[in-house]
Design goal:
Aspartate Aminotransferase, domain 1, 4-stranded antiparallel beta sheet, 418 residues, Aspartate Aminotransferase, domain 2, 2 domains, binds ligand C6P, 17 strands, alpha/beta, 7-stranded mixed beta sheet, single chain, 14 helices
Length: 418
């Protein structure tokens, strides 16, 4: 079992798979081939047990009771925060705020930072390949404040135009918010360079790391990112928990987003003062089990080693790109090789609607996502209504990619014969 593995062993995929109960199940009488990891990942025993242990042995509210269970729950919740902070190399644990996920974290910044820093006529810079979660909150902020959104142009594979980007930054630019890795194209954005250029102009940067933190080393201090958002469920943890990392100097200037219990220092009938970090941004009873589960997920990833996970996914992606490129009918979106790319591959199969491909693959037990992937503007840019998307994680194998390819061929034959 992984809980006994010594740190940073080379992954043995068979033993990793044995840690994930769902991977032994069947769908439509075929073994499950789970290739929808960009949507959400499966959970190892270690994470599932951390949830049941909490509920079965020390379930209590945190930061409130003086009783033993409450103290234990508080200690585990805060210990999870410490381990997550170490995982992304935050300077201090209180720079790590528990949220419901990436979407919640970005909305927090757009409200709590945006409402007091963005004024009429100001500009917010995004890219053309953003997930709706890193677009709609900024549209809402722009509407509230009378600000404008501007978009760094990208080429057909999703690479940002750094020259145009630099020209876009000006006196009215208030923030740059960019995805670290596209959930559609798999392309990796040069965030270190984008941050360096923004900072040279005195502009803070938010990184949507929903698709990067689970798959590659993200060192927030090395990147010098101002805000980083990611989701627990995309990195083996539970749903409903995520992280906003923010630099202490910025978080301290921000008012809370959610008012209520736990986030206050003193409450009078007409006025209140706020608690310090991180409580100021965690009003109400948080997702205690979720935070503990995410801490367990980080422990699991650490035992395998994030660099081992990246290497494994890169070799799977390389193999999958080659196999898919060999199919005449398949057209791949995003970079054609593994340079600047993660383990997310979107594609079209001839003129067949992606939903039909997704449904047929499902009958073979192959789970992929088909749709617009919450990136409608990017779909318009690509000139398609939707794509089929396969996305990998540490437990996937080349055999599963062979099954994906065989299932695509069967689907194509089915439509050709129809
Ligand atoms: N993308 C996908 O299938 P939440 O839903 O808050 O956990 O994550 C939102 C989000 C933000 N940014 C990026 C780059 C993402 O990929 C996602 C989630 C899933 O692609 C669900 S739409």
């Amino acid at each position: 079992m992984t809980t006994n593995r010594s740190a940073e062993t080379t992954p043995d995929v068979a033993s990793i798979r044995a840690d994930f109960p769902i991977l032994g199940t069947q769908v439509h009488d075929s073994p499950l081939v789970y290739l929808d990891n960009a949507a959400t990942t499966q959970k190892p025993h270690h994470v599932i047990e951390s949830l049941s242990t909490y509920y079965e042995t020390y379930n209590a509210n945190i930061h409130r009771g003086l009783h033993t269970l409450s103290e234990q729950a508080t200690a585990e919740y805060e210990s999870a925060r410490d381990r997550i902070a170490a995982f992304i190399n935050a300077k201090q644990s209180h720079e790590v705020i528990f949220t419901r996920g990436t979407t919640d974290a970005i909305n927090l910044v757009a409200r709590a930072w945006g409402d007091s820093n963005v004024a009429s006529g100001d500009e917010i810079i995004l890219t053309e390949i953003e997930h709706h979660s890193n677009l709609v909150p900024w549209q809402m902020l722009a509407h509230r404040r009378g600000a404008h959104l501007r978009f760094i142009p990208t080429d057909s594979e999703g690479h940002v135009d750094l020259v145009e980007y630099e020209k876009m930054l000006g006196k009215r630019t208030r923030i740059v918010a960019v995805t670290h890795m596209s959930n559609v194209l798999g392309v990796i954005t040069p965030v270190a360079e984008l941050i360096r250029i923004a900072h040279a102009n005195g502009i803070p940067v938010l990184v949507d790391a929903a698709q990067s933190v689970p798959h590659m080393k993200v060192n927030v201090q090395e990147l010098d990112a101002d805000f980083v958002a990611f989701s627990g469920h995309k990195m083996l943890g539970p749903t409903g928990i995520g992280i906003l990392y923010g630099k202490e100097s910025l978080l301290n200037t921000m008012d809370p987003f959610i008012g209520g219990g736990s986030m206050i220092r003193v409450v009078e009938l007409h006025e209140s003062s706020w608690a310090g970090l991180p409580e100021k941004f965690e009003g109400g009873t948080p997702n205690i089990a979720g935070a503990i589960g995410l801490g367990a997920a980080v422990d699991y990833i650490n035992q395998i080693g994030i660099s081992n996970i990246t290497a494994h996914e890169m070799s799977l992606t390389d193999y999958a790109l080659q196999q898919l490129q060999d199919l005449d009918s398949v057209r791949i979106f995003g970079p054609p090789d593994t340079a600047n790319r993660g383990g997310v591959i979107s594609f079209a199969v001839g003129e067949i609607h992606p939903h039909d491909i997704g449904t047929l693959l499902d009958t073979d037990g192959v789970a992929v996502r088909a749709g617009h992937h919450c990136a409608q503007p990017l779909m318009r840019k690509l000139g398609v209504p939707a794509t089929v998307r396969a996305s990998f994680y540490l437990y996937n194998t080349t055999d599963e990619i062979d099954q994906l390819v065989a299932s695509i061929s069967r689907a194509k034959d089915f439509f050709d014969g129809a």
